């Protein structure tokens, strides 16, 4: 860089004239003038050659090893959470991490069937003993199996690990409320399940597929359109309900082919169905709520309820060759999802988990409402 040019300026005109007095220090003002041009940046040349690296490929581990690894990770996370709870004083500790019972058995009493952990009966959140009716021994055995599979007392606080216990507690709460003269539980359940009538999945049919262009309806394994499958699945259920359960009412599809807004059912249909749901016994009402929330529809849940309930045995046809079971109800509830996964494939740990969860919840409905004939 070149040296900067400097120009010195004296302060005032006195610097050039004669001075007869003592000279005072002069003030200098400096101004730096840069004249060197900036150097441009030098871009380094590209030295890489060849194609880009390949994408990482997941290891082809066996399914069992992957599941065991995830279980081990979940156990470590759970143990760490327990230790943090103990350190912060929020609970946990050896009292909750241990299982304080050795055996689980069903005990007969005058009120019904009770599930005992050694000598302690299983209780509801209201501190009352959980009692199953005498004619439901399979339900009592299933609840006992739930508690026998628990490995710690802390797991008893997780509702997803004791689903049947929670479901029976819900039914007993409804029964206690009815015995006391009524309450908000039954009204809230009726209001909730009636909302699914206008958007029932069995009544939402896809539009007719256009012949040209074929679109997504054409597939190497597609021999029937989605609308045809929906109608073939829904019509037997609707016919059964309008002939045996709610005779004389009309149930219409809620979604036309040229509209995206569902239409409401006739008012008489709503009134009849609401009155029928309001008069269900406690266990049947709790089972209907579970079935509606699991299958996202009211009609399929009612069909499953009537098929297996001991209180509604007079409404079904016992001479039928095939019963409406969990598999039929699950297929009717997840018809559109099965159609999509049949074309595009399933997402691991998503579609397969949802499929089994729907069947688990619908199976709990059958256990809740079925039983031996008195």
TrEMBL record:
It comes from the Eukaryota. It holds the Pfam family ATP12. Gene3D superfamilies: ATP12 ATPase, ATP12-like. Keywords: Chaperone, Mitochondrion, Transit peptide. SUPFAM superfamilies: ATP12-like. The keyword Transit peptide applies. It is found in: Mitochondrion. InterPro entries: ATP12_ATP_synth-F1-assembly, ATP12_ATP_synth-F1-assembly_N, ATP12_ortho_dom_sf. The keyword rRNA-binding does not apply. One of its GO terms (cellular component) is mitochondrion. Residues 32-67 are annotated as: Disordered. Belongs to the ATP12 family. PANTHER family: ATP SYNTHASE MITOCHONDRIAL F1 COMPLEX ASSEMBLY FACTOR 2, ATP SYNTHASE MITOCHONDRIAL F1 COMPLEX ASSEMBLY FACTOR 2/ATP12 PROTEIN, MITOCHONDRIAL PRECURSOR. This is ATP synthase mitochondrial F1 complex assembly factor 2. It comes from Cudoniella acicularis. The lineage of its organism: Eukaryota, Fungi, Dikarya, Ascomycota, Pezizomycotina.
């Amino acid at each position: 860089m070149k040296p900067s040019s400097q120009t010195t300026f004296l302060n005032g005109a006195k610097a050039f004239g004669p001075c007869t007095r003592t000279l005072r220090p002069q003030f200098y003002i400096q101004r730096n003038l840069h004249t060197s041009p900036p150097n441009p940046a030098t871009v380094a040349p590209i030295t890489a050659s060849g194609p880009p690296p390949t994408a990482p490929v997941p290891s082809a581990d066996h399914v069992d090893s992957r599941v065991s690894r995830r279980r081990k990770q979940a156990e470590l996370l759970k143990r760490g959470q327990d230790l943090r709870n103990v350190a912060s004083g929020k609970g946990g500790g050896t009292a909750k991490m241990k299982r304080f019972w050795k055996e689980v058995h069903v005990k007969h009493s005058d009120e019904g069937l009770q599930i005992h952990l050694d000598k302690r009966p299983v209780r509801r959140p209201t501190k009352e003993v959980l009692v199953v009716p005498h004619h439901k021994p399979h339900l009592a055995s299933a609840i006992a199996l739930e508690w026998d599979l628990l490995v710690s007392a802390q797991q008893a606080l997780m509702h997803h690990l004791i689903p049947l216990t929670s479901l029976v507690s819900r039914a007993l709460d409804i029964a206690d409320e009815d015995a006391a003269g009524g309450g908000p539980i039954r009204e809230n359940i009726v209001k909730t399940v009636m909302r699914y009538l206008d958007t029932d999945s069995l009544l939402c049919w896809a539009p007719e597929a256009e012949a040209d262009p074929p679109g997504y309806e054409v597939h190497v394994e597609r021999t029937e359109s989605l609308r045809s499958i929906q109608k073939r699945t829904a019509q037997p259920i609707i016919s059964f309900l309008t002939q045996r359960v709610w005779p004389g009412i009309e149930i219409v599809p809620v979604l036309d082919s040229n509209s995206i807004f569902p239409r409401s059912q006739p008012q008489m249909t709503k009134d009849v169905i609401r009155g029928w749901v309001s008069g269900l016994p406690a266990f049947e009402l709790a089972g209907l709520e579970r079935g509606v929330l699991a299958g996202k529809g009211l009609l399929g849940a009612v069909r499953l309820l009537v098929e297996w309930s001991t209180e509604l045995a007079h409404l079904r046809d016992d001479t039928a060759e095939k019963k409406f079971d969990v598999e039929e109800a699950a297929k009717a509830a997840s018809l559109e999802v099965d159609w999509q996964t049949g074309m595009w494939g399933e997402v691991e740990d998503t579609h397969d988990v949802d499929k089994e969860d729907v069947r688990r919840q619908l199976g709990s409905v059958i256990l809740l409402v079925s039983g031996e004939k008195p």
